Amino acid sequence: MPALWLARGPKAKVYLFGTIHIMKPDVAWTTPAIDQALTTSDDLWLEIPDDLRDPSSIMSAIKDLGMDPAHPLSTKISKVDLDRLDAAFKAAGLPGEAPFEAFRPWFAALMVSVLPAIKSGYSGENGVDATLRARMTAAGKPVKGFETLTEQLHLFSDLSPPQEVALLHQALANSASANSPDIDKLESAWQSGDIAQVTHYETQMQSLDPSLTAALLTNRNANWAKQLDQRLRGEGTSFVAVGIAHLSGPGSLIEDLTKLGYTVTRIE
Questions:
Q1: Any idea of the CA torsion for 215, 216, 219, 221, to the nearest 10 degrees?
Q2: Which tens digit of pLDDT belongs to each residue from 165-208?
């Protein structure tokens, strides 16, 4: 069963649930404890509150932040990585790298990371976040977010050019490695609540340098912990669902809340 934690304040409670953003259809992952936590929560907190099932809602932001037509992608990366990128796109059923020359390296990296999973039947529409949002919306409860979509995209678009290239290089190295763990293994570890294995697979799949880890994970966790600190000083109950990588390993959101003096207990 997927792991669930509870953080307690003087009068407030916050459930912490690690998600997988994309999932195959008809995967049964809810449990009585998760259902009970949702039922008793006053609101849902996600990384971003936006409903991303409509691609048109994000195209403008991607055009502004994820594209650079004046500087072709092939001029920013090595010949080895260009060949790997071409092969990765073709393996996913796309016509190769050439049609995507306007993409910035960070956006190409995200595509490389997610395309094999999509080809295997995973989708954001079936993701845990989307399912939780739909359930709480149907229950008439508010959905809040730690970040806006634009803020989240800026996490990538504000990377330095070397960081962008490094992110793409790592994504390509992972996709080219026969020993690279795939999302099926991560999903299985998540389903069983094996956080040690989740941390292991996340570490192997990301292999980010320290500056990227700080920008994409630990700095965000620290910011979210500050927001939850304010929430836990109030009253009522919230259900917080963020990517499982944010709740595992060093510098996790759980670790940050503990440093702020809160008791965080795993309940499932």
A1: 180
A2: 999 998 898 776 644 457 888 889 999 998 888 887 776 655 56
